[in-house]
Each structure stands twice: as structure tokens, then as C-alpha cells.
Amino acid sequence: MKALAALACLLLPAAALAQVSGPALEACRDYAKRELTRDGAQFQDLVFDADRDLLLERATRKLGKQFVASILSGNGAVVYETAPSVELSFVCLLASEQKPVFFYWVPRRQRSALAQCTRSAALRAGPRACLEGLLGLEERALGEVYAIRLQEARSGDAAAGNERAYEAYSRSNKAWLEYRDAECARRGVAAAAGPDDARLACMIELSRLRVAEMRD
Question: Of 79, 71, 77, 78, whose CA–CA distance to 103 is shortest?
Fold first, then answer.
């Protein structure tokens, strides 16, 4: 994400950005699909999200020796038929309206678990197994980072001759798990449809945030 942000900061001038229109969107999408296929990826589709982050900046400049006429940026996903989609953020450089010359993407750090499990028609018909699989992955990631932090707490206590770090660590973990489960139960009740799916998606997303927080 830092590399993508740095590239965007380098390329985007003070000129106002505009919502996307015209053939640049499909040109970049087709170019990106060819790039993925060339790299050996096997996927069902590549989609760009038509949200407020999808922007097209028109300009005339050079990046090294390459002429760049416009820059498309936004979010999207690599869609698989029976596996969770890979949610991404991207930048696409175009030499002309229909001539992309560069496509760069990074995984989205804050990504929708429901989107991952409903992009393809096969998963959309029954996303529960997909969501449970994603939650299992995040639970394992939590267990791994918790073990590292536990060892650090134990080492600190051994040096200090007490158990303060371990006790604080344990209270923090217990409080966070209670918050996650209660908050996700609330979101499930509030969901207009699929309350269990909404609850699972919430647990996945909050667990991802917790893992990132514990790793920092």
C-alpha cells in the first residue's frame, strides 16, 4: 500500500480528479487481465468497483521515457469461481484513452469479507462456507501473533520478577474478544438479511484489524 500511495503522490498533480467515464476503464481492465494471465494466474474475472475511489486524472507528462496521458486509480478484485476473491487497490497509467502502459496493484488492507465471498455466482449462492474458511484463517493468524506477544510478556515478567505484563496481556485479549463477539452479534441482528453471514463477516474484519494492530 505504501508503494501505491507513493506512486499516486508522485503522479497526481493539483488538478482536480474526475469520476471515470469513457473507454479508459475497460482498456485498463483488459490490460490488467492480460498481465495476470501472462503471470500464470488462473481466475474467473477481474472487476473494478464503481465507487467514489474510482478516479481518472487526465494530464500530459512523462514518467521516465514513457508518455502518460491519464491515470486511473481505484479498487477492485480478482474473482475466483469457488474461492474468496482477492480485494485490491490499483493504479493504471495510460498513454492514450485506449492504450494502458502500466498496471500496479496491492491487496486492500481493509477489505470486505462479504465482498470476497459474494463476487462469484457460485459463492454468492451460499457464502457461509467461504466466510467460515476466512474466519478460520484469521483465527489462526490471531493465534500466531498472540503466541509471539505472550512470549514477549513472559520474557518481560521474568526480567522484572513479576507477572504484570502477562496479566495486562490476558486482560487485553479477553476484553477484545468480548468486544468483537458482542459487536458482531449486534451487526448480525441489525443486518437486513443474512444475519449469520453479517456476523461472520464482522468477526473476520475485526480479527484482521486486531492482527495488524498486534503486529505493528
Answer: 71
Q: What pTM value is reported for the model?
A: 0.83
Cβ-proximal residues to 43 (8 Å cutoff; 6+ apart), any chain = 36, 78, 79, 80
> Which grid coordinates are listed for 157?
515478567
Centroid of chain to Cα 147: 25
Burial class (CB in 10 A: 0-12, 13-18, 19+), 135: middle
Domains of the chain: 2-111 (no CATH), 121-215 (1.20.1270.180)
* C-alpha cell at position 99: 492504450
Walk along the chain (216 residues) and give the pLDDT tens digit of each residue.
444 444 544 444 433 344 566 799 999 999 999 999 998 889 999 999 999 999 999 877 887 888 999 999 999 999 999 999 999 999 999 999 899 999 999 999 889 999 999 999 999 999 999 999 999 999 999 999 999 999 999 999 999 999 999 999 999 999 999 999 999 999 999 998 789 999 999 999 999 999 999 998
What 3-state class would DSSP assign to 125?
coil
Within 8 A by CB and 6+ apart from 22, the residues are 56, 97
Identity (one letter) of the amino acid at 167?
Answer: E
